[in-house]
Amino acid sequence: MGETAEDHVRPSAGDGSKTPRTARGERTLRKILDAAREEFGERGFSDTSIVGITQRAGVALGTFYTYFESKEALFQALVRDMSAQVRDAAAPAFTEPVHALDAARRGLELFLQFARKNRHIYRIIDEAEFVDPATYREHYETTVTRITARLIAARGKGEIAADLSDDDLEILAWASMGANVFLGLRYSVWDSADPASVAAVANRLFRKGIAA
Q1: Cα gap 90→165, rounded to integer Å
Q2: 184 and 112 Cβ atoms separated by less than 8 Å
Q3: Mind listing the pLDDT tens digit for each residue in 80-136?
Q4: In Å, how far are 78, 96, 202 from 99, measured between CA atoms?
Q5: Running DSSP on this structure, what letter comes out for residue 16?
Q6: Distance of alpha carbon 181 from alpha carbon 200, whole angstroms
Q7: What pLDDT digit, counting tens, does each position of 20-40 carry?
């Protein structure tokens, strides 16, 4: 009693958003982010309004400004949130003690499943290149950092070629991520192919190459 919306948040590190400090605040923020995902995904950044987001989220307009300074700040937070969701969707593949290439296959399969259920991620991430280039780049660079670290660990276990340098593995990480992105676009957004089958064929490229 006597609480205001401001009682449930604290300033963030300066990106124009505020971090919830109560469970109620976290639920409200989640509603705003989920509504923003649908609005930005359906309408694009330019045609999306703060009013439309708050109406979809079922929160007051003033509540929006408790959490975000602007539509741009919300978009930045949404890109980071969706990037984290991609990471978390694939994460279970890398927690089991299996061969690195088996984990990569399973990780791609999980990503394809995620992309099918979250098709808006492609439009939102693509628009970030122009709306917020720094966050767009951050999304891909942090993904590559994770992949590279896993490849380096796999080299140390003798699961991939020992003559590949750290720089070589970073190149392969970018190649792997790029392939995964477009496989998701083709087989989860434009069409609905079996994720396990797509992942198995793509995984063969890393296991055996395509030379006769």
Answers
A1: 25
A2: yes
A3: 999 999 999 999 999 989 999 999 999 999 999 999 999 999 999 999 999 999 999
A4: 33, 9, 16
A5: S
A6: 16
A7: 779 999 999 999 999 999 999
**92-101 contacts at long range (C-beta below 8 A, 24 or more positions apart):** 94/150, 99/159, 100/150, 100/151, 100/153, 100/154, 100/157, 100/159, 100/160, 101/154, 101/159, 101/160, 101/203, 101/206, 101/207
- Which residues in 48-69 are b (16+ Cβ under 10 Å) and which e? bebebbbebbebeeebbbbbbe
CA atoms within 13 A on the CB side of 183: 26
Burial class (CB in 10 A: 0-12, 13-18, 19+), 146: middle
Residue 11: per-residue pLDDT: 47
Structure tokens at 194: 């079996």
Specify the 3-state DSSP secondary structure of 10: strand
Contacts of 94 (CB under 8 A, 6+ apart): 103, 107, 150
